């Protein structure tokens, strides 16, 4: 059994004392930062990335993955306890989670979220183990034309799945693609959009963009919101869900896991879409939909399982095809590159210890999350009771030190400031920043593959539709786009994001 | 329409502004990219792809602007200029002082200016916060994690 041998290898790597420690540290730090209101996984990872520089690559990636689901999970805690979603994927958790908390049932809500997430994480890790190798096989058949078409599909999926206006999402992606091209052109060495600044010769760092648009601009927006909104904190009486709670939620956990895992694999997907879809589904199948919004436990169990499953399976396109499916994975690409690893199908064959070690550590990380969160919930509650006026200057400091220490460059900090301004502008204009970051990372890859594909076909653009795999990808992309333009589906989509 | 004067009004200020921003960046990118060698489809020069993207972005910007004249949308909420300028100003001060002034000065300025961004801040709390953050910046980041910061200006 090759599979078992691989898993064995993975656990051998992940269970070394050093790696378990880094996994634990990642989950702990991720939860710690992620629990702070207004900080999502993207800002958390960007902030903590420098802490992993000195580690060997395997440990660094294990720690980063830990930070990711720690942050994801921390966001849910905040959503349930203080009704403040740290990121889009826990928006729906607020609805029923906070309602439960106000009824004095915060404990069961947190427990069901933790157990549901653990179950979903376990299933999603298994899916990753089963599907990654065959997908990587297919990926080896990919030429530049297929890669280009795949990225087109990914971007279109990101547009379709983004919240809010489609056309504004297209604009954000195009702007992101352009920003990604800043710096020396890889083929000719020509400097592009550098305005004669030597600091821009290597392009803008992804952490700089992420920190500006997801960190600084969010802080400003939060300070602004704070003035108008008082936060009521719920108390935790008991953690244990009742028998009825468990009975009501286990099916929701199963459904959430399924839908989340599926949507996580899609390019452009990830955790957010899964949690929205799961909530809508739970409401649809419920005997009494009016309970939702008033503390229905299924409304916590479903979306929480879905977002954890999606968070896990969104690693699949990254690890097998080398294509990031969402903003968080875009950051992971950057992190891998810093450690000299090019994400793609070759990682599995060339660095099996890294690949399988990381997967095994995901399961361990999920286990640690449950162990860490249920008993330690008191600490997170304490942290949440610290007022925002004291938290945000600390967040600012960590962010600045994080950005600076990437390249020891003060110019990077100044650039992040610029992106903070742009990000705030886009918040005011109701433009989602996530598609921009995705475009930013894909920009250079897309150009490179477009060039190569057309060079190989001697300038014949039909190459994208005459190669069957490429054609298939483009057909899916067109279908996706066509579907959302159909009025009925469009209404559904708006409905799903309305919740 | 029925003899009435057609009036053109911006029905969605948010979308209109977003469209203008996209239009601006699109035109700017295409204009700059024109100076780079275009090449041909077979051998794309460095100007080809950005020029294409710039044109596309400008078109999207125009489309959003036109749409904002037809479909009504929300007004732009007023910005909190105090939060905006003080948060970004604090970050700017950090960027200016970190290399010449060292971590102590940069941290004190960042936290001090940044804290004033919120109208809820209290002076005594800010003082304690600065002291605490200084201890963290020097103790954990500089000595603990070994980041190459100068402590004080030499």
What does this entry look like structurally?
The complex is a heterodimer of chains A (499) and B (154). Chain A has 22 helices and two strands. By secondary structure, chain A is mostly helical. Chain A has one domain (2-498). Chain A has a two-stranded antiparallel ribbon with strand order 1-2. In chain A, β1 and β2 form a beta hairpin. The radius of gyration of chain A is 22 Å and the shape is globular. The mean pLDDT of chain A is 85. Chain B is mostly helical. Chain B folds into two domains: 13-70; 81-144, no CATH class. Chain B contains four helices and no strands. In chain B, α1 runs antiparallel to α2 (48-70) and α3 (81-115) packs across α4. The termini of chain B are far apart. In chain B, 40% of the residues are buried. The mean pLDDT of chain B is 90. At the A-B interface, α8, α9, α17, α18 and α19 of A face α1, α2, α3 and α4 of B.
In short:
The complex is a heterodimer of chains A (499) and B (154). Chain A is mainly α. Chain A has 22 helices and two strands.
Strand content of chain A: under 5%
SS content category of chain A:
mainly alpha
Q: pLDDT under 50 segments of chain B (min length 5)?
A: none
Coarse shape of chain B:
flat
* Low-pLDDT residue intervals, each spanning 5 or more residues of chain A: none
Based on DSSP secondary structure assignment, what is the total number of beta strands of chain B?
0
Continuous helix count of chain B: 4
Strand order within the widest beta sheet of chain A: 1-2
Largest sheet of chain A: 2 strands, antiparallel
Radius of gyration of chain A, CA atoms, in whole angstroms: 22 Å
Give the overall shape of chain A: globular
Oligomer: heterodimer
Q: Label the structural class of chain B.
A: mainly alpha
Write the H/E string of chain A, N to C.
Answer: HHHHHHHHEEHHHHHHHHHHHHHH
Query: Largest interface, and how many residues on either side?
Result: A-B, 64 and 72 residues
Quickly count the domains of chain A. Answer: 1
Structural domain tally of chain B? 2
- Indicate the percent of residues in helices of chain A: over 70%
Percentage beta strand of chain B: under 5%
CA-CA gap between termini of chain A: 46 Å
Strand-and-helix sequence of chain B, N→C?
Answer: HHHH
């Amino acid at each position: 059994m090759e599979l078992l041998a691989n898993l064995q290898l993975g656990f051998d790597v992940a269970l070394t004392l050093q790696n378990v420690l880094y996994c634990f540290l990642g989950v702990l730090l991720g939860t710690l930062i992620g629990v702070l209101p207004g900080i999502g996984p993207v800002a958390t990872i960007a902030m903590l990335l420098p802490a992993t520089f000195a580690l060997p690559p395997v440990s660094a990636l294990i720690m980063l993955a830990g930070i990711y689901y720690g942050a994801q999970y921390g966001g849910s805690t905040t959503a349930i306890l203080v009704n403040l979603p740290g990121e889009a994927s826990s928006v729906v958790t607020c609805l029923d989670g906070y309602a439960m908390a106000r009824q004095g049932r915060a404990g069961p809500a947190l427990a069901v979220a933790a157990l549901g997430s653990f179950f979903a994480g376990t299933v999603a890790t298994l899916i990753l183990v089963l599907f990654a190798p065959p997908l990587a096989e297919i990926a080896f058949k990919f030429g530049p034309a297929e890669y280009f078409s795949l990225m087109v599909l990914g971007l279109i999926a990101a547009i379709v799945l983004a919240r809010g206006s489609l056309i504004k999402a297209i604009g954000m992606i195009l702007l992101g693609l352009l920003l990604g091209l800043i710096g020396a052109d890889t083929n000719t060495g020509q400097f592009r959009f550098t305005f004669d600044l030597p600091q821009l010769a290597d392009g803008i760092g992804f952490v700089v963009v992420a920190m500006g648009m997801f960190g600084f601009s969010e802080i400003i927006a939060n300070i602004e919101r704070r003035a108008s909104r008082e936060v009521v904190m719920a108390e935790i009486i008991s953690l244990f869900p009742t028998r009825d709670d468990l009975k009501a939620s286990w099916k929701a956990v199963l459904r959430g896991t399924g839908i989340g895992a599926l949507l996580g694999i899609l390019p452009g997907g990830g955790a957010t879409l899964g949690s929205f879809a799961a909530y809508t589904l739970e409401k649809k199948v419920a005997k009494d939909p009016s309970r939702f919004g008033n503390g229905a436990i299924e409304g916590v169990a479903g979306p929480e399982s879905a977002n954890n499953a999606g968070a896990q399976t969104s690693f699949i396109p990254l690890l097998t095809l080398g294509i990031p499916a969402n903003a968080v994975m875009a950051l992971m690409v950057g992190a891998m590159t810093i450690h000299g690893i090019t994400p793609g199908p070759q990682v599995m064959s060339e660095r099996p210890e890294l690949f399988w070690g990381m997967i095994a550590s995901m399961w361990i990380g999920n286990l640690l999350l449950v162990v860490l969160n249920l008993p330690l919930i008191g600490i997170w509650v304490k942290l949440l009771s610290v007022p925002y006026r004291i938290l945000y200057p600390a967040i600012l400091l960590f962010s600045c030190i994080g950005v600076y220490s990437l390249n020891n460059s003060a110019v990077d900090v100044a650039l992040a400031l610029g992106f903070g301004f742009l990000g705030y502008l886009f918040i005011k204009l109701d433009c989602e920043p996530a598609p921009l970051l995705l475009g930013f990372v894909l920009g250079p890859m897309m150009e490179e593959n477009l060039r190569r594909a057309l060079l190989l076909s001697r300038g014949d653009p039909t190459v994208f539709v005459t190669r069957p795999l490429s054609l298939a990808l483009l057909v899916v992309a067109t279908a996706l786009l066509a579907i959302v333009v159909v009025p009925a589906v469009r209404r559904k989509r708006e409905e799903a994001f309305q919740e | 329409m029925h003899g009435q004067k057609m009036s053109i009004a911006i029905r969605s200020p948010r979308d209109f502004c977003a469209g203008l921003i996209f239009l601006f960046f699109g035109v700017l990118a295409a204009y700059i990219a024109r100076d780079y060698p275009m090449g041909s489809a077979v051998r794309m020069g460095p100007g080809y792809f950005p020029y294409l993207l710039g044109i596309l972005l400008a078109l999207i910007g125009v489309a959003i602007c036109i749409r904002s004249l037809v479909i009504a949308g929300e007004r732009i909420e007023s910005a909190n200029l105090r939060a905006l300028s003080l948060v970004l100003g604090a970050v700017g001060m950090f960027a200016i002082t970190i290399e010449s002034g060292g971590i102590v000065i940069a941290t004190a300025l960042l936290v001090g200016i940044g804290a004033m961004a919120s109208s809820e801040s209290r002076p005594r709390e800010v003082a304690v916060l600065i002291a605490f953050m200084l201890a963290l910046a020097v103790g954990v980041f500089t000595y603990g994690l070994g980041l190459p910061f100068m402590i004080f200006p030499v």
